Structures are given as structure tokens and as C-alpha cells.
Predict the structure.
Amino acid sequence: MVRTSPELDVDGAASLGSLWVAPEARCAGVGSALVGAVVEWSRSEGFGELLLNVADDNDAAIRLYEALGFRPTGRASAFPAPRAHLGKHQRRLSL
């Protein structure tokens, strides 16, 4: 499952809000296909970039996003409570 929407804080950007793949379907290209669908939708809607936030310790997701061309923006923060102890950072893909 994947969720996307216009990015409210950045004009001309879409946001990939969440991505989840069932454990039995991981490492089979499902995540890449879901992100690809978001990229296509974002382009078709006229967005110039796609933004996402990823947990700093989510190595698998970071590898996926890196392989798909997402690069860190330098913007970092923490998740809201009760996960405020976990850091996250923003990544960007130019469309």
C-alpha cells in the first residue's frame, strides 16, 4: 500500500506519505512498483518534485529510495509522540 498527496508546505511538490509492503512480498519489486506508480501520478498531476520522510534507522527503505533516485534534502526532524525518540529525514526526487 502506498499513500500520496500534494505537499502542503512546498508549492509544486507531491508527498509520498507512506509505503508498506507485506513481509512475504518484500524483495520482489513491489516497493519499486508502488513508488513508480506514485511517480507517474505525480508527473501526470504536474508536480515537479516528490518528497518523502524516512526513519533514519530504516535501512531497507533508505536503500530503496536511494536506488530510485531520492536524495537527502538536509531537512531532519523527529516523529511525533509516542515515537519522538526516532529521527527521520526528508528525501527528494526531481520529476
Observations:
- The chain is about 25% helix and 35% strand.
